[in-house]
Amino acid sequence: LILPFTETLSRWPPEKFVEEVLVKALRAAVVLVGDNFRFGHRAAGTPAMLEELGRRWNFQTEVLPSILLRGMPVSSSQIRCLLEEGRISLANRLLGRPFSVRNAIEPGLGIGHSQTVPTLNLAPYSEMLPATGVYVTWAKIGVSSEEKKGAKSQGAEPPSRPLRSVTNVGYRPTFGERGLGVESHLLEKWEGPPPDSLEVSFLYRLRDERKFDSPEQLKSQILKDIRRAESYFRISGDIAKPISGGTHEISQI
């Protein structure tokens, strides 16, 4: 169930939210919430109120205690705050997996191929991103069903595992660009059909994004970033390898 957060919805009192959403729409039998859960207009609803309403509408409410990691509450608000600060390693620990984004690939301006290093560029992305900067990442490439079918017919199954990569989140200030972008340089060769989409999993933050005096200086720094990323993967070993199910173990260098 997806509810657009409209002004009308934001003004629902707790009782109406429970009746319309939990009872009529979801027909909930058991509702699990954290001990700091709030709902309804002006966050007037509390876990105790939800338990009372559950008895009225015949559903069970279970209130779960907050989970702390090194004294820090594990919550979506805390994780968003860490991502905004670029503290990706700690955000990943709270998530229990690397933070990742996925979107279609769009053609770039060719600057990487001609002046620095080649990259795969995500189409404009409007959801949550970590702070601008350069990151060690896994890049999982997607291909269209037509391309995948064509590759299979030729006996060439496209690789499905994520590839080691370095990713920049930022505005490319050296080249005067203004739009926020996500671009990944692969540390491994992609042996498959033309990529259609890209999922980037962020592992470790290398540095801030900054403006360089020339493309040559930027390229020199990117090569240093690549060496540090390769060192990260080499030192992390099996800890940084993707595991089954599309999740990853997390490490901090």
CATH superfamily of the largest domain: Riboflavin kinase-like
Report the count of strand segments.
10
The low-pLDDT segments are: 244-253
Strand order of the largest sheet: 5-6-9-8-7-10
- What would CATH call the architecture of the largest domain? Beta Barrel
- Count of alpha and pi helical runs: 8
- The amount of beta strand, in percent, is 15-25%
The CA-CA distance between the termini, in Å, is 40 Å
Tell me about the biggest sheet? 6 strands, antiparallel, barrel
Shape: elongated
Look at the helices and sheets and give the structural class. alpha+beta
Radius of gyration: 23 Å
Mean pLDDT: 87
Q: Topology as H/E string?
A: HHEHEEEHHEHEEHEEEH
What portion of residues is helical? 25-40%
Q: CATH top level of the largest domain?
A: Mainly Beta
CATH topology of the largest domain: Elongation Factor Tu (Ef-tu), domain 3
Integer tally of domains: 2
Please characterize this protein's 3D structure:
The protein has 253 residues and is of the alpha+beta class. The protein folds into 2 domains: 7-64, no CATH class; 98-246, Beta Barrel (Elongation Factor Tu (Ef-tu), domain 3), CATH 2.40.30.30. Helices cover 32% and strands 23% of the residues. It contains 8 helices and 10 strands. A hairpin with a 2-residue loop joins strand 3 (68-69) and strand 4.
